């Protein structure tokens, strides 16, 4: 194995995570392919060697974190992956009245407070050299930018849906349990809740007590649980043309799996997972959204947000009774203008995509009013 290939193993999503959590995840694997043993070793080394940093943070900041009160009305951005959740998250976080989980915190939640300066600076230089943009969507990689909490949770506990990329042969079980929170034991549920609240307390501490804007697409299937934790929470759901979502989501697996997997999985299996997870997640959201109190949910379409961002943001602020739109508008406009000419990845919506969406996601076309396409009407779509 070349030095470059060995170094690439340290790009695993949980390379800076909990050593104990990583070992528990590895033990839960039904099998690990021989070719991925160097990756298993590399992540074991990196998580072990960074353990003193997590210990220091626990001793130095543990009591302070435990005493930190999370704002009672966080804002949860819901929606399937590749529907514009990241774009909406980035937009809202331009408003300085809100806090969020940063990319650095998501990468290293165990020592994000103690490592805020020197370690973050080192990682930022390394990221700028190796990966100046996110491979999934070509957006600039900024360690201070908002990030979804799923990456942080995966670094804290084996009970995180993101581990399906590490153990893709067990993906259906992992997503059902740790994405949708189905059939968790009392101990598993308690650990998930403890990790999640610790993460949010650290983000609250970092942001000076501001209400948090949070984004994890899996939260679309956790509305009931989130309301139990935060009865005053507010929600924004964003949807996108399903014909665009399917090929774009398959592209995510092509990027993430080579960096994370310890098991083989075929393209056919990946497509089956994408189709199944979308249906599971969106159906659970539709079943639970009625639990959200009036005035605490706004639904938007990605296409409308892209066409008229300030108009849609104003609608969100008004619908959720959020103050401060006028004060935030210059920052919102500046960010929106800055990404107007952003070059998206291009995926082909071919007859196979159309057929699968029509057969598996017909409910989504009907629910959100997207026109049904028929085969032989293939188009170029940007995702």
Outline the secondary-structure elements.
Elements: H1 3-8, H2 19-28, H3 37-49, H4 51-67, E1 75-78, H5 85-92, H6 103-107, H7 118-130, H8 149-156, H9 171-179, H10 186-206, E2 213-215, H11 223-229, E3 234-239, H12 242-260, H13 267-288, E4 297-301, H14 302-307, H15 309-319, H16 325-338, E5 346-349, H17 351-360, H18 362-368, E6 379-382
Parallel strand pairs: 1-2, 1-3, 3-4
Antiparallel strand pairs: 5-6
Written overview of the protein:
The chain contains 18 helices and six strands. It has one domain (3-349): 3-Layer(aba) Sandwich (Rossmann fold), CATH 3.40.50. The model has no long low-confidence stretch (mean pLDDT 93). By secondary structure, the protein is of the alpha/beta class. The two termini are 35 Å apart. The longest helix has 22 residues, at 267-288. It has helices spanning 3-8, 19-28, 37-49, 51-67, 85-92, 103-107, 118-130, 149-156, 171-179, 186-206, 223-229, 242-260, 267-288, 302-307, 309-319, 325-338, 351-360, 362-368, and strands spanning 75-78, 213-215, 234-239, 297-301, 346-349, 379-382. α12 packs across α13. The protein has a four-stranded parallel β-sheet. Strands 5-6 form a two-stranded antiparallel sheet. Helix content is 54%, strand content 7%.
């Amino acid at each position: 194995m070349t030095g470059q290939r060995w170094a690439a193993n340290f790009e695993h999503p949980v390379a800076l995570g909990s050593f104990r959590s990583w070992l528990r995840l590895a033990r839960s694997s039904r099998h690990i392919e021989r070719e991925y043993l160097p990756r298993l070793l590399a992540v074991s080394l990196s998580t072990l060697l960074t353990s003193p940093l997590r210990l220091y943070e626990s001793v130095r900041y543990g009591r302070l974190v435990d005493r930190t009160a999370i704002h009672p009305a966080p804002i949860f951005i819901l929606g399937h992956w590749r529907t514009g959740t990241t774009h909406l998250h980035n937009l809202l976080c331009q408003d300085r009245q809100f806090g969020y989980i940063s990319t650095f915190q998501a990468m290293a939640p165990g020592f994000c407070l103690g490592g805020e300066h020197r370690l973050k600076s080192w990682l930022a230089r390394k990221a700028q050299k190796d990966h100046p943009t996110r491979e999934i969507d070509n957006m600039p990689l900024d360690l201070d930018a908002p990030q979804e909490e799923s990456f942080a949770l995966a670094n804290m506990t084996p009970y995180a849906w993101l581990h399906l990329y590490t153990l893709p042969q067990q993906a259906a079980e992992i997503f059902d349990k740790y994405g949708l929170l189905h059939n968790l034991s009392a101990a598993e549920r308690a650990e998930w809740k403890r990790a999640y609240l610790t993460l949010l307390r650290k983000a609250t501490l970092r942001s000076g007590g501001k209400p948090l804007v949070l984004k994890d697409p899996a939260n679309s299937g956790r509305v009931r649980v989130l309301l139990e934790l935060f009865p005053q929470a507010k929600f924004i759901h964003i949807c996108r043309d399903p014909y665009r979502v399917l090929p774009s989501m398959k592209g995510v697996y092509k990027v993430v799996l080579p960096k994370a997997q310890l098991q083989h999985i075929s393209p056919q299996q990946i497509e089956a997972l994408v189709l199944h997870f979308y249906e599971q997640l969106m159906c659970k959201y539709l079943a639970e959204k009625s639990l959200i109190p009036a005035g605490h949910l706004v639904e938007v379409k990605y296409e409308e947000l892209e066409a008229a961002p300030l108009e849609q943001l104003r609608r969100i602020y008004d619908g959720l009774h959020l103050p401060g739109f006028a004060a935030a508008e210059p920052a919102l406009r500046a960010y929106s203008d800055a990404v107007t000419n952003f070059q998206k990845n291009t995926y082909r919506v071919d007859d196979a995509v159309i057929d699968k969406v029509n057969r598996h996601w017909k409910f989504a076309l009907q629910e959100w009013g997207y026109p049904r396409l028929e085969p032989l009407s293939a188009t170029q779509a940007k995702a």
